[in-house]
Please model this.
Amino acid sequence: MNAHLRTALDLAVRDVPVLPLRAGKVPFGNCPACRDNACGGRPNMKTPGPCTCPRPCHAWAAATTDPTTLTGRPWAPLWNQAAAVAYHPGGIGLTVVDLDHADAVAWARRTLPATRTVPTTRGEHWIYQGAMPSANAVRDGVDIKSTMVYARWLGPGTGTMTTLPDTVRALIVKKPSPVRPITVPLAGGGECRHRTPAYLERGITMAEQRITEAASAVHATVYRTFLAVLSAHGRCGCLTENHMSRLFTAAQSRGESARHCVDAWSNARTSLGM
Model:
């Protein structure tokens, strides 16, 4: 039996969801039914789409503990081509702090609670008990791998695993970037339809709430919300930089970048002919 498949089956027995990786530490291509993400999966394969394929095929979402899936088609022939085994940390309630070089390891030793560690090619994986959202480049040479990503299996590691600390959770919380002024041109004579300032304030508050409470499809929610705000308030010149800052801050609290906010705002204006 192929060594990688043997490792995968051993992990699966211990309820660790696994998948094969090809050279370059990337998953094998989607199945034919999902070629080029025709099923709706994102190109980065971090989020599965509404796939009706009879077998899993979306990177971390394909990770499984089912030996029949691991040894059957389409995966059976892939193990002979596999370069590594990966697993889904968040799927078993773990978080991997991926330290990519010596300076990152030194920072972790100064800053983070000791936990189980696994040597990597260039650094270390620090593994904590507890899941959280994943994020890349939270600081130089440091990635967070937990939910909706995969990590290479490099062995069980050494040391006692400790509970995920707040210092790690705080790494993905970014301060909102300052908002650059964006001029919203007047249209239709600039006549204001707002009966009182409270009308605009209520609209902005509702927009903030819609964004911050989005359970999924955050980027689409941000765009639709910007579109609604501009449709209702964008043609009379009542929107100020403060209003825009509040909306951008709400979006960034849900993981959107400042660039995505600017792009979504610009696209909404273009859609409305502004």
User: Anything to note?
Assistant: Confidence is low (pLDDT under 50) at residues 41-50, 179-189. Residues 20 and 172 are 28 Å apart (CA to CA).
